[in-house]
Structure formats: structure tokens, C-alpha cells
Amino acid sequence: MKSKLLLSLVVATLASSAMAQVKPEDAIKFRQSGYGFMAWNMGRIKMNVEGGNYNKEEVIKAANAIQAIANSGMGALYLPGTDKGKGWEETRAKSNIWTDKEKMGKVATDFVREANEMAKVAAGGDAAAVGNQLGKLSGTCKGCHDDFKAKR
Amino acid sequence: MNSKRIRLWDLPTRLFHWSLVLCVAAAVISGQVGGKWIDWHGRIGLLIVGLLVFRLVWGLVGSTYARFAQFFPTPGKIKAYLSGQWRGEGHNPLGALSVFGLLGLLGVQVLTGLVANDDIAFRGPLYDLVGNDWSNRLTGLHHLLANGLIALVVLHVAAIAFYGHVRKQKLIKPMLTGWKDEGEGESATGGGILALIVALLIAAGSVYGASGAWMPEPPPPPPAAETPSW
Prior knowledge:
The complex is a heterodimer. Chain A is mainly alpha-helical. Chain A is 74% helix and 0% strand. The longest helix of chain A has 27 residues, at 24-50. Chain A starts with a helix and ends with a helix. By secondary structure, chain B is mostly helical. Chain B has 8 helices and 2 strands; from the N terminus they run E-H-H-H-H-H-H-H-E-H. Chain B has helices at 11-33, 38-61, 68-71, 75-82, 93-114, 127-165, 172-177, 193-211; strands at residues 4-7, 179-183. Chain B has a two-stranded antiparallel sheet with strand order 1-2. The chains are: A mainly alpha, B mainly alpha.
């Protein structure tokens, strides 16, 4: 609990200081870092679910990390005009993120909801339930990628 | 030549065809749905590898009308067919184009799928062979060509409906039973049990290859390189 509090504090601090005057290039970098870090944690959960060697603590850590990032208000990094530009690499954010606000808001909300649920399920320690929730969570990632992330 | 009942499609060809129908449908749906179905999408893809390789081998050693050489669509044959001059049994030259188009496109789909990733938690079994940059590019191609594949399947089904209603040729029944009622050629021969075993073995080998099971496991981290517990 304490570490969770600390983590959300750190994330909140970073987010608010970033929000103050984040440069477009940095905003794109933060975005890409956030998704990349979540991908690592998604992979960790998947490995635990599939490996037949389930480590409850490991999955809780990963799920909490995803939950924290999901709730960090990353929308603040989607500055107008940052559908183009380079962070760590060229951004793949599509311009309809800024125009199709209703749908974008829905996929983002879906994702946060399932990420919160993931953390809850991980705390329960039931590998099958975690696997099932991982599927739901991945589905919400895809919900956004399909419409709002450019293919290469 | 008098028309008579002939043996057109051998059993392995028919089993291949209908298995492929099921697998492609399942692959398209699981790919669109995603989420926990993405792992099934990968497994179905491996099955399609096996089916495709089987068909390639069967196109060389199968029975008469399953062989590529029998129906290979040369420009001359296509021209003859379009002007109504073509006479033959099995795949007509336009149908043959569709066969090669579908097999080719499916081939590209499985090859790109094997190295693809979904930016979430799925990586094709051969992802490590190409690395992240190429995986991203080929994933883009995989998404793009999925539409082409669906279009080609729709065309395939529409063509069968056209032949059925306009040309009064029943194409589905022979693909189910193997027999054509009013055939003008000879019954299919060849494609015996030995050929079948060879084709199945090569197909199984290709699925093993595509599964990446042969790739070296990433070395377990040596105890000395243990990472900090925080």
C-alpha cells in the first residue's frame, strides 16, 4: 500500500510538472515511454500466466505499474499538433485522436477501467482469472490501436 | 466426348479446402476480436502454415486435377477461356488464377504473421528472427493484406454463385463429394497413400519450423547476474 501510494505520488508529480510546460518532443517521448513500459509489464503478466510457474508478487507488481500509468492522465501529453513529430521515434498517434473525441474518450476510459480491474484481479492471485483479465485488458489496448494508432 | 460421372477432387484436396475455409474464417475473426483471442489467432496461423504447405506438396504429387501443372493459368489458356475456346476439366484458367492468388496471399499472411507483434503482449513465434523494426513494418503489411484476403474470398464465393446461377455449373457439390456428374474428362488418378504420407510429413515439419520451437531458448539469467529486488 505504501509503495503504491509512493508510486502514484511520483507519477502524479512527474505528470503535473510535465503538464506545466512540456515540449511537444518531450510529450511524445513520455507517451512512448509510458506505452513501452506498460508493454514490458503486459509481457510479465503473460509470462506468468503461460509459464505454468505463476508468481503472484511479480504479477501484482506488473499490474500495479500498468494501473498507475493508466491513471496518470496521459491525455495531458496529447498536445495539439503532436500527431506529427519525433519522440524516441516518429509518433504513430493519428490525428483523429484530436477530432474523434467521443470515441477516443470511450476507448481511453475502457482501458483505465480494465487496468484497474487487472490490479484488483492480480491481488487475488488466481492465475486463470488473471489470464482472463489480461485478455480483456489487451482488448482495450487494441480498441485504441485499431483506430487511433498508425500502422507501419 | 460423352459426359459421364467422373472423380474430380480427391479426398485430401477436399479436406484441405474445407479445413482452410474454417481456419481462415477463424483467423479473420480472432484477429479482428483480439484480446485473449490473439493467442488463438497465432495457433490457427500455424495450422494454416501446415495446410498451405500440404497443398503445395499435393500440387506436385496429388491426383490429376489437384496438380498445379494441370491447371497452371498461362496467358494463352486465359485468352482461350475468355473467348470461350477453353475445354477442360478441373480448375478453369480464371479459377486457377484465384487458386494461386489465394494461396499466394495466404502465404504472405502467414509469413508476415509469424514475425508480427501487436504492440500489446503478442509476438509471432519467429519475431526474434527479424527484430522490432521489421516486425512493425511487416505487421502493417499483415493488417493491410488482411483486407485483400477478405476481398479475394468474397470474389471467390461470388464467382461460385455466378457459375451456379448464370452458368448452371454446380461447383460446390464436387468439392463436397469429389464426384462431378457431367464430366467431360477422365477421372482423376494418382495421389496415392505414399504421396499423402510424404505431403503430411512435410506439412508437419513446416509447422514445427514455423512454431519456432527449434529456436534456442533465451539463456536463463545466470545466478551471478541477478537483478536487484526493488
